[in-house]
Amino acid sequence: MRSFFPLICILFSVHMSASSILIPMDAEGQKNHLKAYGITYWVLSKQQKVQWLLNYRGGSFLLPDGDAIRKECQIRGVSFEILSDGQAQGILDDISSPSMNQEAVILEKAPRIAVYSPKGNQPWDDAVTMVLTYAEIPYETVYDEEVLEDKLVLYDWLHLHHEDFTGQYGKFYGSYRAAPWYIEQKQNAEALANKLGFSKVSEEKRAVALKIRNYVIGGGFMFAMCSATDSFDIALAADGVDICEPMFDGDPSEANYQSKLDFKKTFAFQDFVLERSPLQYEFSSIDMTAKRRIPKESDYFSLMDFSAKWDPVPTMLCQNHTALVKGFMGQTTSFDRKGIKPTVMVLGENKINQEARYIHGIKGKGFFTFYGGHDPEDYQHRVGDPKTELELHPTSPGYRLILNNVLFPAAQKKKQKT
Q: What is the residue range of the signal peptide feature (predicted)?
Protein backbone atom coordinates (compact mmCIF):
# COMPACT_ATOMS: atom_id res chain seq x y z
CA MET A 1 0.00 0.00 0.00
CA ARG A 2 2.88 2.39 0.73
CA SER A 3 4.19 2.07 -2.84
CA PHE A 4 0.71 2.00 -4.36
CA PHE A 5 -0.55 5.24 -2.76
CA PRO A 6 2.17 7.53 -4.28
CA LEU A 7 1.45 5.97 -7.69
CA ILE A 8 -2.25 6.87 -7.37
CA CYS A 9 -1.28 10.44 -6.45
CA ILE A 10 1.02 10.75 -9.46
CA LEU A 11 -1.62 9.45 -11.89
CA PHE A 12 -4.24 11.73 -10.37
CA SER A 13 -2.00 14.79 -10.64
CA VAL A 14 -1.15 14.02 -14.28
CA HIS A 15 -4.86 13.73 -15.12
CA MET A 16 -5.63 16.99 -13.33
CA SER A 17 -2.89 18.90 -15.17
CA ALA A 18 -3.81 17.54 -18.61
CA SER A 19 -5.88 20.41 -19.97
CA SER A 20 -5.66 19.92 -23.73
CA ILE A 21 -5.97 17.26 -26.37
CA LEU A 22 -3.72 17.47 -29.41
CA ILE A 23 -4.98 15.82 -32.58
CA PRO A 24 -1.81 15.51 -34.67
CA MET A 25 -2.27 15.76 -38.43
CA ASP A 26 1.17 14.76 -39.68
CA ALA A 27 1.72 11.51 -41.57
CA GLU A 28 3.36 9.74 -38.65
CA GLY A 29 1.07 10.85 -35.83
CA GLN A 30 -2.42 10.43 -37.30
CA LYS A 31 -4.04 7.20 -38.48
CA ASN A 32 -7.32 8.75 -39.66
CA HIS A 33 -6.95 12.31 -40.91
CA LEU A 34 -10.45 12.51 -42.36
CA LYS A 35 -12.30 11.54 -39.19
CA ALA A 36 -10.07 13.97 -37.25
CA TYR A 37 -11.96 16.80 -38.99
CA GLY A 38 -15.19 15.20 -37.84
CA ILE A 39 -13.97 15.19 -34.23
CA THR A 40 -13.06 18.87 -34.53
CA TYR A 41 -16.48 19.69 -35.98
CA TRP A 42 -18.15 17.68 -33.20
CA VAL A 43 -16.29 19.65 -30.51
CA LEU A 44 -17.31 22.94 -32.17
CA SER A 45 -20.94 21.74 -32.24
CA LYS A 46 -20.71 21.43 -28.44
CA GLN A 47 -20.02 25.19 -28.25
CA GLN A 48 -16.35 24.66 -27.44
CA LYS A 49 -13.56 26.47 -29.23
CA VAL A 50 -10.69 24.73 -31.03
CA GLN A 51 -7.28 26.02 -32.10
CA TRP A 52 -6.10 25.06 -35.58
CA LEU A 53 -2.30 24.98 -35.48
CA LEU A 54 -1.37 25.97 -39.01
CA ASN A 55 1.81 24.33 -40.33
CA TYR A 56 2.37 22.56 -36.99
CA ARG A 57 2.58 18.80 -37.56
CA GLY A 58 0.46 18.90 -40.69
CA GLY A 59 -2.11 21.37 -39.37
CA SER A 60 -2.95 19.80 -36.00
CA PHE A 61 -5.92 20.65 -33.81
CA LEU A 62 -5.71 21.68 -30.14
CA LEU A 63 -8.89 20.76 -28.28
CA PRO A 64 -10.03 21.24 -24.69
CA ASP A 65 -9.53 18.09 -22.63
CA GLY A 66 -12.48 16.02 -21.52
CA ASP A 67 -13.46 12.40 -21.06
CA ALA A 68 -16.21 12.69 -23.68
CA ILE A 69 -13.75 13.99 -26.31
CA ARG A 70 -11.21 11.28 -25.50
CA LYS A 71 -13.89 8.63 -25.80
CA GLU A 72 -15.16 10.07 -29.10
CA CYS A 73 -11.62 9.98 -30.54
CA GLN A 74 -11.27 6.36 -29.49
CA ILE A 75 -14.65 5.39 -30.96
CA ARG A 76 -13.87 7.04 -34.30
CA GLY A 77 -10.30 5.76 -34.47
CA VAL A 78 -8.65 9.20 -34.35
CA SER A 79 -5.12 9.46 -32.91
CA PHE A 80 -4.71 11.98 -30.08
CA GLU A 81 -2.21 13.05 -27.44
CA ILE A 82 -2.84 14.39 -23.93
CA LEU A 83 -0.97 17.61 -23.11
CA SER A 84 -0.43 19.34 -19.80
CA ASP A 85 -0.98 23.08 -19.46
CA GLY A 86 2.76 23.64 -19.75
CA GLN A 87 3.13 21.46 -22.85
CA ALA A 88 0.23 23.13 -24.64
CA GLN A 89 1.50 26.60 -23.79
CA GLY A 90 4.99 25.64 -24.94
CA ILE A 91 3.64 24.64 -28.36
CA LEU A 92 1.67 27.90 -28.65
CA ASP A 93 4.72 29.93 -27.60
CA ASP A 94 6.84 28.25 -30.26
CA ILE A 95 4.16 28.83 -32.90
CA SER A 96 3.92 32.54 -32.01
CA SER A 97 7.63 33.08 -32.63
CA PRO A 98 8.20 35.42 -35.61
CA SER A 99 10.80 32.98 -36.91
CA MET A 100 8.23 30.18 -37.30
CA ASN A 101 5.94 29.99 -40.34
CA GLN A 102 3.11 28.81 -38.11
CA GLU A 103 -0.03 30.29 -36.58
CA ALA A 104 -2.77 29.29 -34.16
CA VAL A 105 -6.21 30.11 -35.53
CA ILE A 106 -9.26 29.95 -33.27
CA LEU A 107 -12.25 27.99 -34.59
CA GLU A 108 -15.38 29.34 -32.94
CA LYS A 109 -18.49 27.52 -34.11
CA ALA A 110 -19.57 24.63 -36.30
CA PRO A 111 -20.60 26.00 -39.72
CA ARG A 112 -24.03 25.15 -41.09
CA ILE A 113 -23.41 23.15 -44.25
CA ALA A 114 -25.54 22.83 -47.38
CA VAL A 115 -24.92 20.67 -50.43
CA TYR A 116 -26.53 21.81 -53.67
CA SER A 117 -27.61 18.54 -55.24
CA PRO A 118 -30.70 17.10 -56.97
CA LYS A 119 -32.93 14.98 -54.77
CA GLY A 120 -32.88 11.86 -56.99
CA ASN A 121 -30.11 9.31 -57.42
CA GLN A 122 -27.27 10.31 -59.73
CA PRO A 123 -25.23 7.95 -61.97
CA TRP A 124 -22.08 9.29 -60.29
CA ASP A 125 -20.98 9.98 -56.75
CA ASP A 126 -19.89 13.22 -55.15
CA ALA A 127 -16.61 13.41 -53.25
CA VAL A 128 -17.82 16.07 -50.82
CA THR A 129 -20.95 14.25 -49.66
CA MET A 130 -18.93 11.04 -49.34
CA VAL A 131 -16.25 12.62 -47.17
CA LEU A 132 -18.76 14.56 -45.06
CA THR A 133 -20.58 11.30 -44.37
CA TYR A 134 -17.36 9.43 -43.62
CA ALA A 135 -16.09 12.19 -41.31
CA GLU A 136 -19.53 12.28 -39.62
CA ILE A 137 -20.07 15.96 -40.38
CA PRO A 138 -23.80 16.77 -40.78
CA TYR A 139 -25.12 18.59 -43.84
CA GLU A 140 -28.44 19.41 -45.51
CA THR A 141 -29.31 19.09 -49.18
CA VAL A 142 -30.72 22.03 -51.13
CA TYR A 143 -31.58 22.44 -54.78
CA ASP A 144 -33.12 24.94 -57.14
CA GLU A 145 -36.34 25.56 -55.23
CA GLU A 146 -34.54 26.32 -51.97
CA VAL A 147 -31.97 28.52 -53.72
CA LEU A 148 -34.58 30.56 -55.58
CA GLU A 149 -36.54 30.95 -52.32
CA ASP A 150 -33.43 32.57 -50.77
CA LYS A 151 -32.91 29.80 -48.22
CA LEU A 152 -29.12 29.86 -48.64
CA VAL A 153 -28.99 32.54 -45.94
CA LEU A 154 -29.58 29.72 -43.44
CA TYR A 155 -26.14 28.25 -44.20
CA ASP A 156 -22.53 29.27 -43.73
CA TRP A 157 -21.02 26.95 -46.34
CA LEU A 158 -22.33 25.73 -49.68
CA HIS A 159 -20.98 22.95 -51.87
CA LEU A 160 -21.97 22.72 -55.52
CA HIS A 161 -22.45 19.08 -56.46
CA HIS A 162 -21.38 17.84 -59.91
CA GLU A 163 -23.62 20.26 -61.79
CA ASP A 164 -24.10 22.06 -65.11
CA PHE A 165 -25.32 25.63 -64.68
CA THR A 166 -25.38 26.28 -68.46
CA GLY A 167 -28.48 24.18 -69.19
CA GLN A 168 -26.62 21.74 -71.47
CA TYR A 169 -27.21 18.70 -69.23
CA GLY A 170 -23.56 18.17 -68.46
CA LYS A 171 -22.60 17.99 -72.16
CA PHE A 172 -23.40 14.27 -71.99
CA TYR A 173 -25.43 14.43 -75.22
CA GLY A 174 -22.72 12.92 -77.44
CA SER A 175 -22.30 9.70 -75.44
CA TYR A 176 -25.43 9.28 -73.33
CA ARG A 177 -28.39 10.91 -75.11
CA ALA A 178 -30.09 7.49 -75.46
CA ALA A 179 -29.30 6.39 -71.89
CA PRO A 180 -32.40 6.09 -69.66
CA TRP A 181 -30.79 8.14 -66.86
CA TYR A 182 -29.98 11.00 -69.28
CA ILE A 183 -33.52 11.06 -70.68
CA GLU A 184 -34.98 10.99 -67.18
CA GLN A 185 -32.71 13.78 -65.92
CA LYS A 186 -33.58 15.98 -68.89
CA GLN A 187 -37.30 15.44 -68.32
CA ASN A 188 -37.00 16.13 -64.60
CA ALA A 189 -34.98 19.30 -65.22
CA GLU A 190 -37.54 20.60 -67.73
CA ALA A 191 -40.43 19.83 -65.39
CA LEU A 192 -38.71 21.62 -62.49
CA ALA A 193 -37.93 24.66 -64.65
CA ASN A 194 -41.56 24.90 -65.78
CA LYS A 195 -42.76 24.51 -62.19
CA LEU A 196 -40.53 27.39 -61.14
CA GLY A 197 -41.85 29.62 -63.94
CA PHE A 198 -39.10 29.29 -66.56
CA SER A 199 -39.55 28.25 -70.18
CA LYS A 200 -35.99 26.88 -70.45
CA VAL A 201 -33.71 24.94 -68.13
CA SER A 202 -30.82 27.19 -69.14
CA GLU A 203 -32.72 30.26 -67.92
CA GLU A 204 -33.66 28.57 -64.64
CA LYS A 205 -30.09 27.40 -63.99
CA ARG A 206 -28.77 30.87 -64.71
CA ALA A 207 -31.21 32.32 -62.18
CA VAL A 208 -29.90 29.80 -59.63
CA ALA A 209 -26.30 30.75 -60.44
CA LEU A 210 -27.14 34.42 -59.86
CA LYS A 211 -28.70 33.61 -56.48
CA ILE A 212 -25.59 31.67 -55.49
CA ARG A 213 -23.46 34.60 -56.65
CA ASN A 214 -25.45 36.91 -54.38
CA TYR A 215 -25.06 34.46 -51.49
CA VAL A 216 -21.28 34.64 -51.81
CA ILE A 217 -21.22 38.41 -52.25
CA GLY A 218 -23.27 38.70 -49.07
CA GLY A 219 -20.70 36.76 -47.05
CA GLY A 220 -21.19 33.07 -47.86
CA PHE A 221 -18.53 30.43 -48.45
CA MET A 222 -18.86 28.45 -51.68
CA PHE A 223 -16.93 25.32 -52.63
CA ALA A 224 -17.24 23.67 -56.04
CA MET A 225 -15.61 20.72 -57.78
CA CYS A 226 -15.42 19.30 -61.29
CA SER A 227 -17.95 20.76 -63.78
CA ALA A 228 -19.67 22.93 -61.17
CA THR A 229 -16.61 25.21 -61.28
CA ASP A 230 -16.41 26.29 -64.92
CA SER A 231 -20.11 25.85 -65.75
CA PHE A 232 -20.93 28.26 -62.91
CA ASP A 233 -18.66 30.97 -64.30
CA ILE A 234 -19.87 30.34 -67.84
CA ALA A 235 -23.48 30.82 -66.72
CA LEU A 236 -22.56 34.14 -65.13
CA ALA A 237 -20.65 35.34 -68.21
CA ALA A 238 -23.53 34.32 -70.48
CA ASP A 239 -26.22 36.10 -68.48
CA GLY A 240 -28.81 37.20 -71.04
CA VAL A 241 -27.12 35.28 -73.89
CA ASP A 242 -28.45 32.02 -75.41
CA ILE A 243 -25.48 29.66 -75.77
CA CYS A 244 -27.51 26.41 -75.99
CA GLU A 245 -28.09 24.43 -79.18
CA PRO A 246 -31.57 23.10 -80.15
CA MET A 247 -31.15 19.63 -78.58
CA PHE A 248 -30.79 21.35 -75.20
CA ASP A 249 -33.42 24.10 -75.23
CA GLY A 250 -35.47 23.70 -78.42
CA ASP A 251 -34.13 26.65 -80.40
CA PRO A 252 -30.82 27.71 -81.98
CA SER A 253 -28.10 29.43 -80.02
CA GLU A 254 -27.61 33.15 -80.38
CA ALA A 255 -25.44 34.31 -83.26
CA ASN A 256 -21.88 35.31 -82.28
CA TYR A 257 -22.55 34.42 -78.65
CA GLN A 258 -18.84 34.09 -77.87
CA SER A 259 -18.33 37.83 -78.43
CA LYS A 260 -21.23 38.64 -76.08
CA LEU A 261 -19.78 36.96 -72.97
CA ASP A 262 -19.15 39.36 -70.09
CA PHE A 263 -16.08 38.21 -68.14
CA LYS A 264 -16.51 40.98 -65.58
CA LYS A 265 -19.38 38.95 -64.12
CA THR A 266 -17.38 35.78 -63.44
CA PHE A 267 -15.71 34.69 -60.20
CA ALA A 268 -12.47 33.09 -61.35
CA PHE A 269 -12.08 32.82 -65.11
CA GLN A 270 -11.72 35.19 -68.03
CA ASP A 271 -11.11 35.21 -71.79
CA PHE A 272 -12.24 31.59 -72.23
CA VAL A 273 -13.67 30.19 -75.46
CA LEU A 274 -16.83 28.11 -75.31
CA GLU A 275 -17.01 24.67 -76.92
CA ARG A 276 -19.76 24.98 -79.53
CA SER A 277 -20.20 21.33 -80.49
CA PRO A 278 -22.93 19.51 -78.49
CA LEU A 279 -21.08 16.26 -79.22
CA GLN A 280 -17.98 17.32 -77.30
CA TYR A 281 -17.84 16.44 -73.60
CA GLU A 282 -16.38 19.83 -72.75
CA PHE A 283 -17.66 23.27 -71.82
CA SER A 284 -14.83 25.62 -72.73
CA SER A 285 -11.10 26.27 -72.90
CA ILE A 286 -11.00 26.69 -69.11
CA ASP A 287 -10.58 22.95 -68.60
CA MET A 288 -7.22 21.26 -69.28
CA THR A 289 -8.45 17.64 -69.59
CA ALA A 290 -7.89 17.34 -73.34
CA LYS A 291 -4.61 19.28 -73.17
CA ARG A 292 -2.97 17.03 -70.56
CA ARG A 293 -0.01 14.83 -71.49
CA ILE A 294 0.77 13.54 -68.02
CA PRO A 295 1.10 9.80 -67.31
CA LYS A 296 -1.01 8.59 -64.40
CA GLU A 297 2.09 7.47 -62.49
CA SER A 298 3.55 10.99 -62.47
CA ASP A 299 0.31 12.95 -62.18
CA TYR A 300 0.71 15.05 -59.03
CA PHE A 301 0.11 18.66 -58.08
CA SER A 302 1.93 20.69 -55.48
CA LEU A 303 0.37 22.83 -52.78
CA MET A 304 1.61 26.40 -52.52
CA ASP A 305 3.45 27.61 -49.45
CA PHE A 306 2.03 30.74 -47.79
CA SER A 307 2.95 32.78 -44.73
CA ALA A 308 0.77 31.46 -41.90
CA LYS A 309 0.95 34.73 -39.96
CA TRP A 310 0.37 37.06 -42.90
CA ASP A 311 -1.87 34.91 -45.10
CA PRO A 312 -3.78 32.58 -42.76
CA VAL A 313 -6.65 31.99 -45.19
CA PRO A 314 -4.71 30.29 -48.03
CA THR A 315 -2.48 28.62 -45.44
CA MET A 316 -5.56 27.15 -43.78
CA LEU A 317 -6.91 25.82 -47.06
CA CYS A 318 -3.57 24.15 -47.89
CA GLN A 319 -3.04 22.32 -44.59
CA ASN A 320 -1.88 18.78 -45.26
CA HIS A 321 0.61 16.12 -44.29
CA THR A 322 2.24 16.32 -47.71
CA ALA A 323 2.92 19.13 -50.17
CA LEU A 324 2.47 16.79 -53.14
CA VAL A 325 -1.04 15.49 -53.88
CA LYS A 326 -2.01 12.78 -56.36
CA GLY A 327 -3.80 14.11 -59.42
CA PHE A 328 -7.23 12.84 -60.50
CA MET A 329 -9.44 13.38 -63.51
CA GLY A 330 -12.93 14.79 -63.96
CA GLN A 331 -15.09 16.43 -66.59
CA THR A 332 -13.27 19.55 -65.46
CA THR A 333 -9.89 18.22 -64.34
CA SER A 334 -7.89 21.42 -63.97
CA PHE A 335 -7.80 25.05 -65.02
CA ASP A 336 -5.69 26.74 -67.67
CA ARG A 337 -3.46 29.20 -65.84
CA LYS A 338 -3.81 31.71 -68.68
CA GLY A 339 -7.55 32.01 -68.09
CA ILE A 340 -7.50 32.63 -64.33
CA LYS A 341 -8.12 36.18 -63.13
CA PRO A 342 -5.10 37.84 -61.47
CA THR A 343 -7.12 38.45 -58.29
CA VAL A 344 -7.58 34.70 -57.77
CA MET A 345 -5.06 32.75 -55.66
CA VAL A 346 -3.68 29.48 -56.98
CA LEU A 347 -3.40 27.08 -54.05
CA GLY A 348 -2.34 23.97 -55.96
CA GLU A 349 -0.76 23.58 -59.38
CA ASN A 350 0.97 21.30 -61.83
CA LYS A 351 3.60 23.72 -63.02
CA ILE A 352 4.92 21.45 -65.79
CA ASN A 353 1.51 21.40 -67.47
CA GLN A 354 0.78 25.07 -66.62
CA GLU A 355 -2.45 24.12 -64.91
CA ALA A 356 -4.06 25.07 -61.63
CA ARG A 357 -5.87 22.35 -59.67
CA TYR A 358 -7.05 24.25 -56.62
CA ILE A 359 -7.89 27.98 -56.54
CA HIS A 360 -9.47 30.44 -54.13
CA GLY A 361 -10.84 33.94 -54.27
CA ILE A 362 -12.89 36.66 -52.62
CA LYS A 363 -16.19 37.94 -54.00
CA GLY A 364 -17.80 40.78 -52.10
CA LYS A 365 -17.89 39.77 -48.44
CA GLY A 366 -17.63 36.05 -49.21
CA PHE A 367 -15.19 33.45 -50.45
CA PHE A 368 -15.11 30.74 -53.10
CA THR A 369 -12.86 27.75 -53.74
CA PHE A 370 -12.73 25.76 -56.98
CA TYR A 371 -11.16 22.28 -56.94
CA GLY A 372 -10.59 20.51 -60.26
CA GLY A 373 -11.35 16.81 -60.70
CA HIS A 374 -14.10 14.46 -59.55
CA ASP A 375 -12.78 12.04 -56.90
CA PRO A 376 -9.36 12.42 -55.22
CA GLU A 377 -9.01 8.65 -54.75
CA ASP A 378 -10.43 7.45 -58.09
CA TYR A 379 -8.12 8.59 -60.87
CA GLN A 380 -10.62 8.42 -63.73
CA HIS A 381 -14.12 7.99 -62.32
CA ARG A 382 -16.63 7.12 -65.03
CA VAL A 383 -20.41 7.27 -65.10
CA GLY A 384 -21.75 4.22 -63.29
CA ASP A 385 -18.50 3.32 -61.53
CA PRO A 386 -18.84 2.17 -57.90
CA LYS A 387 -18.24 4.81 -55.26
CA THR A 388 -14.95 5.13 -53.42
CA GLU A 389 -14.81 3.43 -50.04
CA LEU A 390 -13.13 5.99 -47.81
CA GLU A 391 -12.44 3.36 -45.17
CA LEU A 392 -9.61 2.40 -47.53
CA HIS A 393 -8.29 5.99 -47.74
CA PRO A 394 -8.53 7.48 -44.21
CA THR A 395 -5.38 9.57 -44.71
CA SER A 396 -6.18 10.89 -48.22
CA PRO A 397 -4.40 14.23 -48.87
CA GLY A 398 -6.79 15.04 -51.72
CA TYR A 399 -9.84 14.63 -49.51
CA ARG A 400 -8.19 16.66 -46.74
CA LEU A 401 -8.32 19.72 -48.99
CA ILE A 402 -12.12 19.41 -49.12
CA LEU A 403 -12.36 19.24 -45.34
CA ASN A 404 -10.06 22.24 -44.92
CA ASN A 405 -12.74 24.21 -46.73
CA VAL A 406 -15.49 22.77 -44.54
CA LEU A 407 -13.81 24.10 -41.38
CA PHE A 408 -12.78 27.39 -42.98
CA PRO A 409 -15.98 29.31 -42.03
CA ALA A 410 -15.48 28.32 -38.38
CA ALA A 411 -12.32 30.43 -38.12
CA GLN A 412 -12.34 33.59 -36.05
CA LYS A 413 -12.41 36.43 -38.56
CA LYS A 414 -9.25 38.50 -38.82
CA LYS A 415 -8.39 41.16 -41.36
CA GLN A 416 -6.06 39.68 -43.95
CA LYS A 417 -2.76 41.49 -44.11
CA THR A 418 -2.10 41.06 -47.83
A: 1-18
